[in-house]
Structure formats: C-alpha cells, structure tokens
Design brief:
Order of helices and strands of chain B: HHHHEHHHHHHEHHH
Strand order of the largest sheet of chain A: 6-7-8-3-9-10
CATH class of the largest domain in chain A: Alpha Beta
Distance between the termini of chain A: 31 Å
Shape of chain A: globular
CATH architecture of the largest domain in chain A: 3-Layer(aba) Sandwich
Shape of chain B: globular
Number of domains of chain A: 2
Number of strands of chain A: 10
CATH topology of the largest domain in chain A: Rossmann fold
Structural class of chain A: alpha/beta
Oligomer: heterodimer
Largest sheet of chain B: 2 strands, antiparallel
Largest sheet of chain A: 6 strands, mixed
CATH class of the largest domain in chain B: Mainly Alpha
Number of domains of chain B: 2
Strand order of the largest sheet of chain B: 1-2
CATH topology of the largest domain in chain B: ABC transporter involved in vitamin B12 uptake, BtuC
Structural class of chain B: mainly alpha
Number of helices of chain A: 10
Number of strands of chain B: 2
Radius of gyration of chain B: 23 Å
Distance between the termini of chain B: 69 Å
Strand content of chain A: 15-25%
Strand content of chain B: under 5%
C-alpha cells in the first residue's frame, strides 16, 4: 500500500547547519497495517510524514502509494489518497466556517470539486450519522462555527474529516500531544476505533511510548534519520517501555537523550 | 438635497458591485488586493473605448469585466507562482495597469456623453413603461421642488447588484466556493484536503477584479466618461464599504455580510454627499480621500471601543453585585 524506497533528505546541505533528516529510508506498509513511529526530537519522524504527504520533497528516492509513484505529485494531488491530522488542533479545521461546511470540504477530498452546493440535505444526514459516532454531541451543532469548539472537539472533528472518506493512507502527526490527558485518551480511543472500522493503513508519530505500544500492530523507532528498530505482530504486542529503552541502548550504545520521549 | 441623495444611492448601488469584489479578496481570501485601483479603470476604460468604436454596450461591458478578471488572475499568479507578497503583487499590477489602461484608452479621458451606452439604453427602454411618472406621483406627498428624472438606473442597477449578490452567495457555498473560503481561513488544512490553493487564489482574485471592473464599466457609462485617474483610492472606498457595512449590519452569515457590504457602499456614498453639501463644513471634493480614511478608521475602531466598554460595564456590575452581597451577609452576621 505504502512503499518508500531509499529516501534521503538533507536540510541546509554544505553549510554548518547541515542536517541529514532522512538517510536511506526503506519501508513497506501493507494494507490495513497501523504503525506507530517513535524517536527523540530531530530523529526525522515528522520529516518522514511530510515526505509521504508531499509537503516536503526528498532529495533522492521514491514514494509509492498503491504501486503509483507519487514522489513528483504536488501535495494537494496526493491528499486525494492521504488523510492527515496535525499536532495543532487548530490546524485541521477552518475556524470561521461551520462544522457542516468543514465536513463538506473533507467529503469532497477524493472527488473533483464542482459548482454544486457543498452542504446538501442528504450529506447533512450522512455527516450527522458520523458525528454521532464521536459521542461529543457535535451532531446537534452542525451550524456552529468550528472556532467555537474546544481543542479536543476540534481534534476529534479533524480526525473524522481525515478518515471518513477512507483514504489509502492515514498520517497522524503527534495528534494528541497538544491535548490534556483525558482529551488525549479520548482521541486515542477514537483513533483506534476509526482505523479499525475502515481498516486504514496508518502511520502515527508519537512522543508517548505507552501510546505507541498500545496502538497499532507495528512499531518503528527512529534516530538520526534512520529507522533503527522495526517490530510487528506478537513481538510488538509483548513489548514494554523498558524493552524499547534497552533496545535503543543496545543499537545505539547510549541512552535516549530526550526526557520527553521517555516520559511524554 | 433629495436629488443629491437620490444620486448618491444610485451610484452607491453601482459601487456596491465593486465593494462585493473587495469583500471577496479582502475578507474571503484574506488577500489585501490593491489591483482594484487599476482594474476599476480597466473596466471603465476598455468598455468606454469599445463603445466609442461601435461595440454594443452590453458586449463592451462584459469585455470590460473580463479584462478586470484577467488582471486579477495575473495578480494571483504573481502571488502564487511568483511567490511575491500579496500586497506587493497588487501594487505591481496596479502600477502596470496604469500604463496598460492608457494604452487601451489612447487618451486620459474617454467621453461617452453622445454615445449610446448601457445606461442610456436602459433609460430609453424604461421611459416607455411609464413607471417613472407613477413613482414620482407617489413622491408628491413630500412636496419636493424637483423629482428624479428617471428611476430606471436605480431600479435596474439594484436588480443587477442583488443578482450578483445572490450568485456570490450561492458560489461561496458550492464545493469550489467552500474551498476558496477555506483558502482564506486555513490554507494548510484545505491543501491537506486536496484543494489546489494556488488555483483557488488566482480564480478568487480574478473574480474579485472582474466585479470591480464591471462596476467601473457601469460607473463610466453612468457618469458619461472614463478617466485614467478615476480608480485612485478605489480600494479604500471598497474597504470603507465592507467595514462600514459589517459594523452596521453584522457579519454572521455569508448572505448577511454580502447584503451588509451593499448597504455599506450606499451609506458611504450618502455620507460623502451629505458632507459635501453641508456648507459650513466647507469640505471640498479634494478632501474626500481624507474623509474616507477617517470613516474607515472610525468603522474599525469604534466597534472595539464599544465592546471594551460593554465588557467593562458588565464586570463592574458583577463586582458591585458581589460587594452588595458581602455587605448584606456581614450585616446579617
């Protein structure tokens, strides 16, 4: 489903600030696979996501989605196949527009936008049905401006907007990191729900190791632009935070630097 | 005075089309587009020259509007493909249009006084209906010295402006329209929902300037001339209309704002007319730009001051009520 072949990307090449963000990344995700990605700050997790989504273009290497090479496609064309939720709860929705208008824009994602009304009676019923699954009461506030919602509600809405057209790939970039613990838990639950329901091929970046262990059926650990640890299936289910830390020490010969990565 | 006010409302209705264009760029796309000063003249100038050369007025007006659309698209391309700052790309296009307009017009002023224009055609068609005498008959109640010579322009232009308003309302609720609004609201988000924001900005700024040029074409035919300098300060007049309209009539929904913008454009014209006619103020027409600037500043600042004052009063009232309660409980204890 998602196939990344030998992708490298260096920022500020040949300057003192040179940073090898990705170094020869190779990976293959099968349909329905849910991988969580961990690593300390600057390990290249977000860069990897951005290379898949098209907001960054790699120096070399190819990205295949459904066996189609998308590495030269601009971001907006790839988004037909990719659903995304960002870390900032404000980033995934348009605040001055209503809930139903936001949903209508997401609904049109994998279609050609036309000069027909975005919100119709039929679509409203459809939106309402999906919103009910969130259990946040948003289905009764279709005409409310999204800017009036709380961060948690907005993030839940973003998640719904990213998934309900069943994209080929779902990218979650620390999408619970900016929320308080109870809201983060709610979003985590909803994430597990929708990913399971639509069997979405998903890549989730997180700083929270427990979350990385709880969710998904595969796990990548990244460091210095490389995937240093890739585990799936039963082995992944039996992992603990201590295993992860030991594994990092074994591979890199030192401890993980970021406290945030450990405690977060 | 009545005739002057009548004239103010009449031109206000035509300027409202320009204000709707400014609303589209300034508010919907959040793009402060200064192309307006140039594209207004483009509309008036090209339409004027075409009419003088014998093009049917309706066709000439449409071509004028199309020219504005193209000018706007170029501003959009400068900003998106050229990655030039929004304000600067508008200024560059405005300056370029000054020369381009003069090229088209051949001379700084094109007179339409003896030509058959859209306005004169509407008037002559209208004259045969006899609606004027009926409407003026109703005005007799007020015992005015003079009555308007024709209601044709006011009524027909009001119908046109409202038609454009409803089309714009509809457009902004279509799938493409929603994407344009989101482009002005949260570009990152709508790009992640597979919208080509560059294309939407180009189309949006194009449409905005198409409306501005249409308004210019009609104002030119209404006034009987097109002048190279008639667009100076047009963007500020457009902003004034949008901001005054929003402040007075509210901005809750799209339908409401577009109506408010039309109202703002008419009120702006009325205020200017009244200011010019109050003798003891001795305001000259050259002072109008200053008045416009002051109007915009007032419309921007006043609502905030009023809101701050309202909030302060509310807090004070709550505080006073709380003190009162404490005193009472102390007294009873």
């Amino acid at each position: 489903m998602l196939n990344i072949k030998d992708v490298s990307l260096t920022f500020n090449e040949d300057t003192p600030d040179e940073k090898k963000a990705l170094q020869g990344i190779d990976l293959e995700l099968n349909k329905g696979e849910f991988v969580t990605v961990i690593g300390s700050n600057g390990a290249g997790k977000s860069t990897l996501m951005n290379v898949v989504s098209g907001s960054l273009h790699p120096d070399v290497g190819d990205v295949f989605i459904n066996d189609q090479n998308v590495v030269h496609l601009p971001e907006y064309k790839r988004s037909k196949m990719i659903g995304r939720v960002f870390q900032d709860p404000m980033a995934g929705t348009a605040p001055t527009m209503t809930i139903e208008e936001n949903l209508a824009m997401a609904y049109a994602r994998n279609k050609k936008r036309r000069l027909v009304p975005g919100v119709t009676k039929k679509r409203k019923d459809y939106f309402r049905e999906y919103l009910e699954s969130l259990n946040l009461g948003l289905e009764d506030r279709l005409n409310a401006k999204v800017g009036l919602l709380s961060g948690g509600e907005r993030q839940a809405l973003s998640l719904l907007m990213a998934t309900f057209t069943e994209p080929h790939i779902l990218l979650l970039d620390e999408h619970t990191a900016a929320l308080d613990p109870s809201r983060a838990e709610l979003i985590t639950e909803i994430t597990a729900d929708v990913v399971g329901k639509f069997e979405l091929t998903t890549m989730m970046v997180t700083h929270n190791m427990q979350q990385a262990l709880d969710l998904g059926d595969r796990l990548f650990m990244m460091d210095k632009g490389e995937i240093i640890f890739d585990v799936k299936g039963e082995e992944k289910q039996n992992l603990t935070i201590k295993n992860l830390l030991d594994e990092f020490q074994r591979i890199r010969g030192k401890q993980i630097e970021s406290d945030r990565a450990v405690l977060g | 005075m009545f005739i002057a006010l009548f004239g103010a409302v009449e031109s206000g209705v035509i300027y409202a089309i320009m204000a709707l264009g400014v609303y589209l760029s300034f508010r919907v796309l959040d793009f402060p587009d200064l192309t307006v000063d140039g594209s207004f003249v483009t509309g008036a100038g090209i339409t004027g020259v075409l009419i003088v050369n014998g093009t049917p007025p309706v066709l000439a007006t449409l071509i004028g509007a199309l020219a504005g659309f193209i000018a706007g698209c170029i501003t959009g391309i400068l900003h998106t493909a050229g990655k030039i700052n929004a304000l600067l790309s508008g200024i560059l296009m405005m300056i370029a249009l000054y020369s381009i307009n003069l090229r088209f017009m051949g001379q700084p002023t094109v007179s339409l006084l003896n030509e058959s224009t859209l306005v004169s055609q509407i008037e002559s068609l209208w004259a045969s209906t006899g609606i004027d005498s009926a409407l003026n008959g109703m005005l007799n109640v007020f015992e005015l010295d003079r009555v308007p010579t024709t209601w044709a322009i006011l009524i027909m232009m009001a119908i046109l402006t409202l038609a454009i308003k409803f089309l714009l309302d509809y457009f902004l609720k279509t799938e493409i329209g929603l994407a344009i609004r989101a482009t002005g609201d949260n570009q990152k988000m709508i790009r992640s929902l597979s919208a080509n924001t560059n294309f939407l900005i180009i189309i949006g700024i194009g449409l905005s300037n198409g409306l501005v040029a249409l308004s210019g074409a009609l104002i030119g035919q209404h006034g009987g001339f097109a002048n190279l300098n008639m667009g100076i300060g047009m963007i500020v007049i457009g902003l004034a209309s949008v901001i005054i309209g929003e402040a007075l009539f509210g901005k809750k929904t799209i339908t409401r704002v577009t109506l408010a913008v039309i109202g703002g454009a008419i009120i702006y014209r009325v205020v200017v007319t009244v200011a010019l006619r109050v003798d003891y103020l001795s305001i000259q027409s050259s002072d109008l730009k200053l008045i416009t600037a002051i109007l915009v500043i007032a419309a921007l600042v006043t609502p905030k001051i009023l809101q701050a004052r309202k909030d302060k009063k509310r807090r004070q009232a709550k505080r006073a009520a709380l003190m009162e309660q404490q005193k009472e409980s102390e007294a009873s204890a």
